[in-house]
Amino acid sequence: MASGRNPRKRATVYLAVLGAAMILTVIGFSALAAVRVQRRAAESTTDFAAARLYAQSAIELGLLWIDQDANWRETYTSGVWVANGTIGDGKYTLEGVDPNDNDLTNSQIDTLILTATGVKGAARYKLSVELGPEPTSGMNFLESAIHVETFFRANLEVTADAPISSNGWARIDGTVNGNVEAVGSIQVEGTLNGTATEGIDPKEVPDATVFDFYVANAASISFSALPLSGGFRELSNTVISPGYNPHGPTHTQGLYKIDCQGEPLLIRDVRVHGSLVILDPGDGSRIDGAVNWEPFDAGLPALLVRGSIEFRWSGTLDEASLSTNFNPPGSPYPSSGEDTDIFDAYPSIMKGLIAVSSDLRINAAESIMGVIFNGGAEMRVDNTLDVTHDPTIIANPPPGFELPPKMRIVSGTWRQVVD
Length: 419
What we know:
Radius of gyration: 37 Å
Strand content: 35-45%
Number of strands: 32
Structural class: alpha/beta
Distance between the termini: 79 Å
Mean pLDDT: 91
Number of helices: 5
């Protein structure tokens, strides 16, 4: 009987040991599974952090590209800039969108939304930020009283209270009262009462497209409607202002264009309270007699000439001697208003920005308050020119004469995007 009970005891012990081993095995597998879950969770967390970093880095790339490319609005389209680009151990996509009209090229001041997606493994992170333009500033040639692209030549006397600068070279055969600076050489054969600085960096200047805005927006003064005298179409003895255009429709900002189509134009004895754009004037075209000229809108130039022109105006714009009322109702003079008589007289002066795309010759005693820009082969002064620089022009530059605005992050616009 005793020997018969021993196998049962041994079986019971065996089962107990086996059960304990199974429990230990289960515990071991559970621990291993827990480690695997923890490792996967850690990997997932690491991948998520990497994906977020890649998205941030993609935004930074976009900001860098914009800063390095003055023409970025033409370089990139509104939409995807980079798709599945490689970054680190993952990928990124970068989009730049104009939220106003989905067109980056039609305005320098439209906002931009940069959206980047970073991917690492199964992790994905999407981030966006809004960029807006900083206030614009003028091209640095507007710091000069006179700036020429090629060659400045003073044959008589020039006085300027701000630099006379050239992206080419300069020659002084007469007298210059002021400082002269040039990318190339400065030849002084006459008298320079100021400094001569050679080897400057070229100034920023507009290109030929600067006329596009004005051609598109100006009201026309009909060239064919101007009286013909001595082979010239002549604009004379009149006022040009927002309220008055004797040869076409008026413009609320006083912005007018004359398309000469290669024929000569003579402007003399006029008061312009506005902005005049002269297109393709023929040989011999000039501004003569006496003129009193300033923009109605301080944010517009006084005179733009696509072509060559000569300045011969001087003296006094006298209503009685010219039998013309230059401040009639609807065209008040800034300091004295309007009237119906011809008893007033006005100084002969031009104020504001003057830009001439080709040759400019000064051949009378001129007084200018503003900035002169000459983009042609030569600006030549054969008489007396006195230029008082107007620093407000660079602070409030006319369209086409401003630098492209820098784009900067709008505070408070960083956002995680959830699709």
